[in-house]
Every structure is written in C-alpha cells, then in structure tokens.
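hiii, so i know i said id send this last week but things got crazy w the move. better late than never?? heres the sequnce for the chain we talked about at the cafe, plus the structure i predicted for it. fair warning i was half asleep when i ran it
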Amino acid sequence: MEKKIIGGFRHVRYEQTQINPEEMILRSERFYAEMDNRRTVREFDTRPIPIEVLENIILTASTAPSGAHKQPWTFCLVSDSRIKKKIRDAAEEEEKISYSTRMPETWKSDLKPLGTSWEKPFLEDAPYLIVVFKQSYGLENGEKVQHYYVSESVGIACGFLIAAIHQAGLVAVTHTPSPMNFLSEILQRPFNEKPYLLIPVGYPKAETYVPDIHRKPLEEVLKKF
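okay and structure toks below
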C-alpha cells in the first residue's frame, strides 16, 4: 500500500474500483430498491442469530465518518434474557408515563396508524438488543479527550447500522424511550456515555403485518439548485 507523509502525518493512498455510469445507475437503483423494502418490525421470532452476523453489523456501523475521527460511540449487544427483562420493565415504566402525561394528544393521534402503545414485548422477544451510546467525551489514561459533533456522528453510525441490519436479512425497530438513563444504570456504562438509541434485532415472525404507510416521493424530498 502506497504511503505518504502529509502535514507531518502518514497517509495511505485511497483506491476505488471505477465503474461506468450505467453500472453506477444500476447499483444505485438496486440499493434503493433494497432499502425501500426495509420496514420497522415490532414482532420478532425468537430463533437465534449467529453472533458473527451481529459483530459484522456493528463493525459496519463503526465505519461511519465522525468528527475528527474520534468514533464517539459504544454499541452494547444484549442477549441475556434477565437483562432484556430489566430493560423492558424500565422502558415500559417510562412509556406508561409518556402515554399518560408527557405526550400531547396530537402525538398520540399521529402514532395510532402505527399501532404502538406503552407495551414493548419486542424488548424481550428479539434475540438481540443493540443499545447505542454516544460518548460525550473520550477517556485516555484517566484524562478527558475532546469529541466533536457527537450526536451527528452517532446518528450517521446508526444509519449505517440500520442499513447493515436490513442487508443481513434481519429486521429491527428503533426505540427511544424517554428518558433513557435507565439503560446506563442497567448496563453500567461510564459517565461519559449517554444512551442514544435502543434497537431490537432479529427475524420477523412467520406471519407479520406492518402499517400500510408510504414514503414521500422524490420531488418532495429533493430540491435541485
């Protein structure tokens, strides 16, 4: 691999296989079609998944760009049934309060077509939970290390994560109980980490139904200048 010193730091030459415009269009169409088939699923089959699949999915998420390449994320992979039960109990306790007092009627009305409620059985049914934490700052030898654009960086990594889950033939639901501090306590994470996203992952049940929703067309999400 060809290397070069730039600004006093070692760089390696970037190489990418070039493809013609026709192949680019075909690949982009195929990937769009694949991702457009992705749906949020809340009904999971309990059958196991090879651990290597989850490890590769998380490795893919960790390839995301980040501010100053600080990679300010931690992915906690939970399969222990006792821990999943604790997470479900704590999440449902917060969700009960949210549905009864925190959420305005407009929000609850918007959720009705999706069929959601404070009950979250998928937190136990899914064979794995991926709990994503954002690192407000790093720790090296007991000293704080500055991190940059933390929420943006972790958000991009979660996008990679969701795409990788779908590409592996699995399904997921992005869950954000609020507040989520109980995740830090249950998983005993350090003070510099804050819970960002909770993602149950697995196979869908044999007979699973999802809301009949539609995505905005291109002309509504794209503005050309």
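btw The two ends are 39 Å apart (CA to CA). thought thatd interest u
miss u guys!!
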